[in-house]
Write a structure and sequence with these properties.
Helices cover about 30% and strands about 35% of the residues. It has an 8-stranded mixed beta sheet, with helices on both faces. The protein has a domain of about 120 residues: Aminopeptidase (3-Layer(aba) Sandwich), CATH 3.40.630. It is an alpha+beta fold and about 180 residues long. Bound molecules: coenzyme A. The site of coenzyme A (COA) has 22 residues, from helix 2, strand 5, helix 4 and helix 5.
């Protein structure tokens, strides 16, 4: 299944997507924004991608964000922790390269994925966590209709500093297409 706007396509993972994902782990900026502490081996990344390629598990849906202009894999967007009893899930997104920030890809990908979550996955509530030092992401989420609902105080320890994690959510009737 694919989902499309004029500039991006959400498509299933492929084996070769491991490469840009692997490259993205070299970005200190992206690791900080996603709170990625761990160091990964290439094998672990290949396994991660292989797991995404397998038919979506019942508690997760994941897509590669592809730029229509050059068909590059520019990021990933995932709804996980799907709770069928309570019609809820959690969303996360990361672009692979800082040079692709600010081109509208993130907004479009989150918007498409949230629409998919409500329409296809029949969710009622989609939540996320974002670190307080990420005003760009917070702006994108608010633009789409996410509402701040709480703060996990000092949830991230990064470079000797504690950072709050803001929890946000959107309910199905709050979604702005
Ligand atoms: C967060 C992320 C998904 C956003 O995607 P993007 O493609 O860069 O964002 P867009 O180009 O769609 O939109 C950026 C918006 O933020 C605004 N913005 C940029 N910097 C900002 C800042 N410092 N403060 C507030 N708003 C800011 C832009 O003006 C734009 O808003 P507008 O369309 O209303 O003008 C992407 O930057 C990313 O993957 N970052 C690294 C990983 C990450 O932070 N993931 C989220 C973890 S919760």
């Amino acid at each position: 299944m694919t989902l499309k706007t004029e500039t991006i396509t959400l498509r299933p993972f492929r084996t070769e997507d491991a490469e840009p994902l692997w490259q993205s782990l070299e970005s200190e900026t992206i690791n900080r924004l996603t709170g990625t502490h761990g160091t990964f081996t290439r094998e672990q990344i290949d396994t991660y991608v292989a797991n995404q390629i397998k038919a979506d598990s019942d508690d997760r849906a994941s897509f590669i964000i592809e730029a229509n202009v050059d068909k590059r894999a520019v990021g990933e967007v995932v709804i996980n922790e799907i709770d069928r009893d309570n019609h809820s899930g959690n969303i996360r997104i990361a672009l692979f390269d800082e040079t692709d920030f600010g081109k509208g890809y993130g907004t479009q990908a989150v918007r498409l994925m949230v629409g998919f979550g409500f329409r296809e996955l029949k969710l009622h509530r989609i939540s996320l966590g974002v670190y307080a030092f990420n005003p760009r992401a917070i702006h994108v989420y608010e633009k789409i209709g996410f509402v701040k609902e709480g703060v996990l105080r000092d949830a991230l320890y990064w470079n000797g500093e504690y950072i709050d994690e803001i929890t946000m959510s959107i309910l199905e009737h709050e979604y702005k297409v």
